[in-house]
Amino acid sequence: MPETNRIEYKRELSEGLEKEVVAFLNYREGGIIYIGIDKEGKTVGVKDADEDQLKIKDRLKNNIRPSALGLFDIVSEERDGKEILKIIVASGSEKPYHLKKYGMSEKGCFIRLGSAAEPMPQKMIDELFASRTRNSIGIIKAHRQELNFEQLHIYYQEKQKPLNKQFRKNLELTTTNGDLNYAAYLLADENNVSVKVAKYKGETRVDLIESNEYGYCSLIKATKSVLDKINLENRTITQITSKERKEQRLWNAISLREAIVNAFVHNNYTREIAPKFEIFKDRIEITSAGYLPDGLSKSEFFEGYSIPRNKELMRVYKDLDLVEQLGSGIPRILEHYDKDCFHFSDNFLRMVLPSAESVYATEQLHSKYPASIPQVTAQDTEHVNEQVTEQVKNLLSVMDKAYSRKELMEKLQLTHREHFRAAYIQKAIELGLVELTLPDKPKSSKQQYRLTEKGKKARKG
């Protein structure tokens, strides 16, 4: 694979590394640098991967400003039987990044153009600096300065990474004036951040049966508490078909963990709102505050490009192995769930993960009510009309031909996929008013829905 706008090869660890990293930090998509691969893409390997990793981390920490900590990840990989290093660089939110030695000048600032790192024009430097995000948890001074970090010390000790006396500075928990910042407040033993996990009896918020609160402590402790609680709720179910007996958990454990951790790490805490977790009969909803970070589109979000909203938290979560590597969370979730599970608004991002029980029920329903054209009598139509809900009436009113699920939801101005499935399409299929165009392939991406003869009669009536 040749070098691209997001891939850079280096035969060995050289003096130009910081320049390449700065260019990717300033680039809207970030990028990846491989050490141990030459410009032709041939693997040559590195002699001492562990030593090189330490050198890289030290150089990037000390030679780039603003701090790049939490915005890069170093991974050792094997290719063609040789060890190489992979440096994953996220797009930063405090552009322009520059070489400390040269400051914010054309000699210190670089941007990725094609497959090269080019000097950034002074006009662009000035524009980026003028629009730099200043309202971040690393810059905001904590309203309480008497904070303790015993829990954080314990978690780092468990990972055999004991914190020294300079940990506040090393973990970027202070402002430029030396005061503890809002990131420190979130990671302290005590704070006023309340994290709630709610459980409902049915598919709506009407019947709350359990409410748990895990806040007022280090965000790391709150994260682990939520992970433990939802892991208990993620029970194993058995599905018996004519062919096999299948056991699986309500939600894919890896995707669920990624979704929970992502909600904590990327939540917009400057609005003093914590992520929220809600368990329903047919789904789990995970809601975090804040839209996508500036400069990140939805398509880039789904492709795994990363612009960490809270680089200080990202760095700590990575140290404690709660995050595997930059940009891996969303692709892991998408291995098991559709993009439609992500709901974006101006102020929030919500992940709606359907339970295996609800998916299985839908598949059973599709097999129970295959596409057919039944004979319709006046008596049948009258009986059906008595059972048609307002939701089904609305559905029938917009169906003048075959439509996909997405098209129908857009016509009805609905955003909640599971609500549409249960209250609209499933009910209409049960009544024999709507049928699948591909009944033998209920989960096909080309699946559409159309009115049956009975549905056409009901629509006219």
Q: What can you tell me about this protein's structure?
A:
35% of the residues are buried. This protein has 3 domains: 7-130, Methyltransferase, Cobalt-precorrin-4 Transmethylase, Domain 2 (2-Layer Sandwich), CATH 3.30.950.30; 196-356, Heat Shock Protein 90, CATH 3.30.565.60; 369-460, Arc Repressor Mutant, subunit A (Orthogonal Bundle). It contains 17 helices and 18 strands. It has helices spanning 17-26, 49-63, 122-130, 150-158, 167-170, 182-187, 219-233, 253-265, 298-302, 311-319, 329-334, 356-368, 378-387, 390-397, 405-412, 417-430, 453-460, and strands at 7-10, 31-35, 64-65, 72-79, 82-89, 98-99, 110-113, 116-119, 196-200, 208-213, 236-240, 245-249, 276-279, 283-289, 342-344, 348-354, 434-436, 449-451. The strands form 6 sheets. It has a 6-stranded mixed beta sheet with strand order 10-9-13-14-16-15. A 4-stranded mixed beta sheet has the order 1-2-5-4. Strands 3-6 form a two-stranded antiparallel sheet. By secondary structure, it is of the alpha+beta class. The longest helix is centred in the first third of the chain and has 15 residues, at 49-63.
